[in-house]
Design brief:
Number of helices: 6
Number of strands: 2
Order of helices and strands: EHHHHEHH
Radius of gyration: 17 Å
Low-confidence stretches: none
Helix content: over 70%
Largest sheet: 2 strands, parallel
Shape: elongated
Structural class: mainly alpha
Distance between the termini: 48 Å
Strand order of the largest sheet: 1-2
Mean pLDDT: 76
Length: 121
């Protein structure tokens, strides 16, 4: 089976997934991680929470767009009889990005449930 050459679309899918994860995490997960590691204080979380109205929807949109690019390239390669280069890497990046966005959405949409879950850990 032929291997498809990496295209700018494959790089765009990876970058879109990573950017989406970072944007979605910037309101909740990233400041929380910095606070837990002792690098930052609660002020950074309060500052970033003001922008969650734009970072969460933009993060979700970018991750959805990354999955669309991935599926589209997968279909293109299956009809052309080729195999994507770096398929495993792309799939792992998109999976981690999706997980980060999902956790950020859980923290935003179900704060009481996630707080009790985190306290039990």
């Amino acid at each position: 089976m032929n291997e498809a050459q990496p295209t700018p679309r494959s790089a765009a899918a990876n970058l879109s997934g990573v950017a989406g994860a970072l944007l979605a995490a910037s309101c909740c997960l990233l400041p929380l991680a910095l606070i837990l590691s002792g690098v930052a204080g609660a002020g950074i979380m309060m500052t970033m929470m003001r922008y969650e109205w734009i970072t969460l929807p933009l993060g979700v949109s970018l991750v959805v767009g990354a999955w669309w690019l991935y599926v589209h390239d997968q279909k293109r390669c299956s009809t052309a009889g080729c195999e994507l280069v770096g398929k495993r890497f792309r799939l792992s990046v998109l999976s981690v990005a999706t997980l980060v966005v999902f956790v950020a959405l859980l923290l935003k949409l179900f704060p009481a449930w996630t707080a009790s879950l985190l306290q039990s850990l």
